[in-house]
Amino acid sequence: MTITVPLKRATVPLRAEQHDRYLRTLLVPGIGVAGQQRLLAANILVVGAGGLGSPVLLYLAAAGVGQITVADTDVVDVTNLQRQIVHSRESVGRRKTASAAGRICGLNPDIAVTERGFLTSEDIDEAVASHDLVIECSDTFDTKFLVADACASAGVPLVWGTIISTTYQVGAFWTRPPTGLPATSLRDLYPAAPPTGSTPSSAEVGVLGAACGQAGSAMATEAVKLITGLGEPLIGRILIADVAAARWNTVEYVAATRGQEAEIAHAEAIMRTDKPAMPDDDLTERLP
């Protein structure tokens, strides 16, 4: 079964120079010309331009996603450069959205970039509903659940990720998927945010830059799959990785029913790890 996200814009034929630029993508079985046309017509909201958002934004731009909105409120700090590869030393002190937009447009002139600041409960519904797909790369639980709840309400597919130290998780959620796929949301996996102070921050335990690259690349891949129909998306499954142990597991879960928490099919795989189950992305970005 081919699974694709509905697009708000119609696809258009590729120009000759686009055939050359995207040739290696066109040759991928399951994508081809039709898939590349869908990428160019797609409109994706990326929340967060930090450790996860950086590789996500770069690979979306390289893939030719036609419209990208990047939402972030932070400015680039020198401590970010160890992992936030969309930014450069010259970007220190600039808004992350402006830094990322400049890098994206320099990488691929086919891309139209929109910058957004802080997302609130007043504007999140409009922000989500105006896009084909959302990728959540933020560094706070409040934002993660705000975005996830808005996507669940609007039926907009969500690609989600979180990372701490050398471990990360990546998944995809969609409350109105095509027939044959389970309807899922972040709260099926995590019914509520963890208690304050129960999860260490990267300011305490660090974060490996290359692990951010892995996680962000996996998230960008899930987005490309959902836009083009390539392969099998991570819906109803969660990717759990510990790069220090060179261990990657895919864990199945089932959607919560009313009044019940999610049942994790292989919860023991999570319980065996001594790493936090749902780590924050990058709290160091919000330190003075």
From TrEMBL:
One of its GO terms (cellular component) is cytosol. Residues 22-253 form the THIF-type NAD/FAD binding fold domain. It comes from the Bacteria. InterPro entries: ThiF/MoeB/HesA (IPR045886), ThiF_NAD_FAD-bd (IPR000594), Ubiquitin-activating_enz (IPR035985). Pfam families: ThiF. One of its GO terms (molecular function) is nucleotidyltransferase activity. This is THIF-type NAD/FAD binding fold domain-containing protein. It comes from Bowdeniella nasicola.
